[in-house]
Structure formats: structure tokens, C-alpha cells
Design a protein that fits this description.
This protein is an alpha/beta fold. It is built from 9 helices and 14 strands. The radius of gyration is 57 Å and the shape is elongated.
Length: 415
Amino acid sequence: MENRHLSLYELNSLVRETLEYELPDEYWVEAELSEAREVGGHCYMELIQKDEHSNTPVAKASAKCWRNTWMLIGPHFERITGQRLHAGMKVLLQVSAQFHENYGFSWIVSDIDPTYTVGDMARKRQEIIRQLKEEGVFDLQKELHIPMFAQHIAVISSANAAGYGDFCNQLANNDYGFQFYTQLFPAIMQGEQVEQSVIAALNQIYEIQAKKPSFDLVVIIRGGGATSDLSGFDTLALAENVANFPLPVITGIGHERDESILDMISCVRVKTPTAAAAFLIDNLAAVYERLENARTAIAHHVSRALDAEQQRLSVISGKIPMLFSVVKTRENARLDRLFTAFSSQMRERIAEARHRLLFIEERTKALDPALLLKRGYSITLHQGKVVRDPKQLKAGDEIETRVEKGTIKSRIEEI
């Protein structure tokens, strides 16, 4: 052996024989999936182990589950865990070592323990729930209320999903003829991109709502996909975004057995997209019933009030003739008293006025210029005006002097 070279095939055969001799058994191994994909009915996995403190990979390996085995253990795993194999999932695999001269080394998977993954998923879920509660956001959505007239709906769903079509059809064809207005914000609703895609849709809705309030609530629905592929709805980032969203969020992501973290923190959780539509219709129907009951109650109370007022008016109208007679007699007596008092006052005022006129007349007679002229006084006039001051006159002016028996005309020669 030392004196000759080995071909690559011989070397690989030696490795295969050594592995078959040294590792003849099957082993249960814990690992995290960094990749999992199905090709031609086979399942190909990339396994990884990370340092607990630094999260740095410390080991990597490839694993394969051949079709005849995968067609048995794959459906069983999905049925128990409710999820497909995907990156980031912790798994417990039963493997055996295999080295092929042409394809190299690989671990061959003969079984997967779903209870291990369920336990790890439960641990992760509980950790996310604990963190949400510590942040004080776990129940924020529960504090919001579905508006009474919730008709403007922002919908996050896959545009081509059958569930989205069912949701829209049920709203449009409701038995009450209610009008709903929906706007779709497309998102990926299964697989590893759910978190990023749904958060992006929420951000779009928030931006529109911030500029102009346009929606009453948000509906996140999913239908038509594999019920096992729901891992994207169990992430911390998505839960935080929904919990802190200012509008009520209704979830209907199409699974009944398990409740996702997104369901736990949403304002209202329903099972399916059609159940979400039914909830909105029932909400509006309840409001309509309340309005109808209020309308009936108001009409009843108004009718009773009108009847009571009609009876009161009838009683009053019956008393009007009698009351009018009493009032007329009372007012006539009052008018008579007022007329008597007014007549008395008028007679007194007329007498006072007559006395004043006589007094004025006597005073007027005493001031008559003719009496003054009889007493020997005279009055000098110039141009018809009484002269009271010689300065009013000048040389050449003609004046009249009135005396008791006549008038004397003179001309001023000198002042």
C-alpha cells in the first residue's frame, strides 16, 4: 500500500468500508434545519448546530430521506406538528452514515420524532408569549373595539387565494344588502416570507391611514394553502407589529386545531376567511337591529306622547269657552275701572289747564302795550322795530312815536 498510489475511487471505497465498519448503527441526533426541500419525492436537508451563546455555527451536515421513507414519515410529522419541515426548525432525526464513492458522505434519515419538534415549537411559542407580555403588548388589540359601522376593510391576503375570493363574495352577496368596501394589500401567506410580507402590508395600511383615515379595521386571511404551513404566523416581529397596530385586526388564517400567536394577540380570531366575512356581516346586522329597535322605541314613545298631548289639548279646548267668559268679564271690569280712573284724571287735568289759561290771560292783559300808552308812555319805532338804544339811529333816519291818541313821525337831525 505504501509503494503504490490509490485511485480516488479506491480511496472513497476505503472511506465507505471504514464508515460501514465503524458506524454500523443508526443514531438519534438533535439538529436545526438550515434548509429543507423536496425534490422528486425525496427530502433533502441541511443540518446545523449553533453555539448557545454566540449563535455561531459549530457543525454542519447534509441529510437525505429517500422517497419510500419520506412518503411515510413526512405526512406523519406534518400531522403531529401541524407544520412542514422548514429552516429554523429543531428536529430529532434517526440517521445512519452513508458514503458513496460518487456522491460523497451524507446522513440517511430513517425516522423523525415529531414530539421533539412539537416540544421545541411549544418552548419557542411560550418564549414569544412571555416576551410579548413583558413588553405589555399581548392584550393591546383586545382593548380595541370593532366599530359599529365597520364597512371599510383593509385585507391582507394572497391575491389569488381561494379564501380571499370567498371572503369578498360573501361580503358582496350578504342577505341584508349591506355595502362593504375592501382594499387588498397582497402578501405571501405561507412559507418563510410570511412575516416580512405581512409586516410590509401593515406598513402600507398604516401610511394610508396616517394621511387620511380610510379603514375601520384590518382582516388577515389565508385560505387554499396547506394547513400545515403556518409557521410564519408564530413569529415575535409579526406579533409585535399586529399587537401595536392602531386598528382592530381580525385573523382568519384557515386552521382550526391550533391557535397561532397571531391569533392570540389579534382583536378577534375566527377560523376561516368566510367566518371573517360572516363576523363582519353579523356585526353590521347587530347594529342594524339596534337601530331598528331604537327606531321602534322612539316611535312608540312619540306616539304615546302625542296621545297624551292630544288628550290634554282636548281637556283644555273644552275649558276655553268658560275660561274666555271669565276672562272677558274680568277684563271688562278692569276696563271700566280704568275708564273711570282715566275720566277722573282727565277732568282734574282739564280744570288745572283752564285755571292756568286764566292766569296766563290775566298776565297777558297786564302786559298789553295799549295799557302802557294810556298811562302816558310812548313807543318809538324805526322801520317797524322798537328803538331801545339811541345808538340804533343815525342822522336822517325817520322814526315813529306811538302815543295813546296816535302816531308822531319825526326825522333825526342830530344824535
